Give the backbone structure.
Amino acid sequence: MYLNMPFGLGDGGDIVSWLVWIIFFMVFFMFYPRIMLSQIMWKLEASARKLEELSLKSKKLLINEISRKPTKELKDDVNRFFEFFMITPVSLDPAGIVKKFDHLIKNERERFRYFTEQVCPKMDDERKANIQMGFAGGIELYTLAKIVRHYIEMIKKTKSYQIAMIIQMQIPMIERIAKALFEGTKTLARGEPIGDAVGPWVVAKMIDGKTTEIEEEVVMFRKKSDGRNLFLLKARGPGGRIGYPGKAVEKLIKKYKIDKVVTIDAAAKLEGEKTGSIAEGVGIAMGGPGVERTYIEDAVVRANIPMDSIVVKMSSEEAIMPLRKSMINALPYVMDSLQRSISRSKKGTNIIVVGVGNTSGVGNSKTDAEKTAKWVESYEKKLKEAKKKAN
């Protein structure tokens, strides 16, 4: 019985055919990794150029927000500032690490303030705050593009197929983050609301009077609700600010007998979860490096104060992109959760409610919050119209 083999080897094919077959396989296995590496590098190079283009667009956008007729000096200043970095403190001995981070964050914000004062001195404070937040997003996108370029150049030098595979697997997620950062930079620079503004927006909906600035960039409004005294806190808007809510809460706890602290914030959802769905829990819902959260946690632990949290779920990308209708539609459910939290405290007690997040595009009153909701409605219409044109 004869086997059906290539080149007729099974039925007495000559030695030349057999050698050709062996050589073919040797050449194939020798050059296959290089061929695959070339294909991967072509895709990675295209992705790197796309990221660099987005970074360049964000830089031009910020320059145009500062001046419609930018000078060479302004462009040079912005290019130089995009190289800004912050070195994290030594954490070998964790004692005092929070104070180190606090000091660094203050220094970082001061540098951003100083730079915006230099490049746009005639702008009002709210516009300057927006430009600062825009620079924060633009610098992050620029850094991301640089890191991807770094690895691609390293792969070219080392011809490492393994590193190329690792970067290729990460590129889809990196591109998603980059697009979100670009949209976030554009939205923040223009002073429009982002997903992370949902916490301050909810608190603004509850403010029906004049606020007072209790801490740097943090405003407060006192009101009664169902027999309880509420201290409503949010970053001062409508400029893009985060403020220092931790220090504000700590100050209130020292001054008054506080019975509960409730935080309302955006939270990263898992894939498959619905944007705008809410969840209740305990603890302090607050992102970032953890400095402000530490101040609150230390204060509430010392005073034995319970902590409730309400979160509006969205993806990490949605948090830095424009605020959507699905997020503000969560308001009734957030208010129900807040009412349940309040009702668990006795009447006459003092409760702090903190709207955590970036207050870009969200003012400090119910009227301002309604303006934000109208902006979201207008934005949704534009998206629908753009989708129809695309189809």
In short: Strands lie at 212-215, 218-225, 228-235, 258-268, 278-282, 307-314, 350-355. The radius of gyration is 27 Å.
